[in-house]
Amino acid sequence: FLPNFWSRVLTLSWDSYTHQYITEQAILNVTLDTLQQHQGHHDFQDRLGRSFWRAVGEVVHSNAEMDFLSSTRSDPVYHFDSERVESAVAMLRQFWAHTLLSVRANEYQSARHSLGQLFHSLQDFYSHSNWVEMGQRSIYLHLLQPKEPAIPVAEKCSHGGMLDSSRTMGAKGGINKDSTSPLFSPHHYLHAEAAKLASEDTLTVLRDLRDTVGHKTFLRLFSVKQAPALVFVIDTTGSMFEEITAARMRAYSIIQNRADLSGRPGSFLLVPFHDPEVGPVYETDDPNQFMEHMENLMALGGGDEPEMCLTAIQLALTHSPPLSEIFVFTDASPKDAHLFDVVKALALTKQSK
């Protein structure tokens, strides 16, 4: 497919689907569907602000770059060209693995970059291979799902079209379906069918990604605004034995008070800390489940008086949306006082209290 809107203008193929259009529409559709499933919100325009479109733009830019960067534009492995199907499939799966690793490490910019690369190769499969010519009318699941059956697929050695320097050499012609222009795409008459399958597979990848990492993480990946959370950071060392019940009751009171004042918060987070351990973070949208989980908190062990309080607050800030309220319960001074400036800066950036 052509990379973006401007390439469609230059080739005078106004009705061609581009990598940009397929990618933007897929991300928008799955994001809106996720918002509806996850929270039942209808104020979508407020949730999909500049930050969302900036994140989408990063994916689109990474996708288009594959056709422009010297390191990727002529390498058939990135574009399913020159009979390199197996190598291209392996590369596709590497992009998927890297995307997952980056998302799980909260490295969302890196994840968006590799996702754009993945989409480019995935979409090119339908435009550059003979999948459509074989009469296939559904997506090729084996590309990213090794357990699905493999089907023999090939590409013409010559890509074809005016932009292909090898179009008059060796295996002349080509089968690309990148556009509706006969000058640039020998199989232009199959462009719409290839675009339909590329769009469907792009949607499938996004849904699989969402189901793998979870709805909330998926929305964070695309910088969708999230409702502020109520966060409780609680010291569970032995010295808190008598205070832990009071802290739990105070947390219940805060949750109830916020529900009465402004409706239910977007989510509830709990970050326990117990020198030297901090976390794990517990998160739920259900206040009843959250309160049940807090019932299991016990104050045990401990030794010296200072505790890892600021590390716990940093973890809470990292995992909570902007504008969240964070309540800290402890009877100790911080052992990790060197983190004060870092935590303060993070709190100011997120405008959390």
From TrEMBL:
<keyword id="KW-0732">Signal</keyword>
<dbReference type="InterPro" id="IPR056861">
    <property type="entry name" value="HMCN1-like_VWA"/>
</dbReference>
<dbReference type="InterPro" id="IPR056862">
    <property type="entry name" value="VWA7_N"/>
</dbReference>
<dbReference type="InterPro" id="IPR036465">
    <property type="entry name" value="vWFA_dom_sf"/>
</dbReference>
<keyword id="KW-0964">Secreted</keyword>
<dbReference type="Pfam" id="PF25107">
    <property type="entry name" value="VWA7_N"/>
</dbReference>
<feature type="domain" description="VWA7 N-terminal">
    <location>
        <begin position="156"/>
        <end position="219"/>
    </location>
</feature>
<dbReference type="Pfam" id="PF25106">
    <property type="entry name" value="VWA_4"/>
</dbReference>
<dbReference type="InterPro" id="IPR052577">
    <property type="entry name" value="VWA7"/>
</dbReference>
<feature type="domain" description="Hemicentin-1-like von Willebrand factor A">
    <location>
        <begin position="229"/>
        <end position="353"/>
    </location>
</feature>
<protein>
    <submittedName>
        <fullName>von Willebrand factor A domain containing 7</fullName>
    </submittedName>
</protein>
<feature type="domain" description="VWA7 N-terminal">
    <location>
        <begin position="46"/>
        <end position="155"/>
    </location>
</feature>
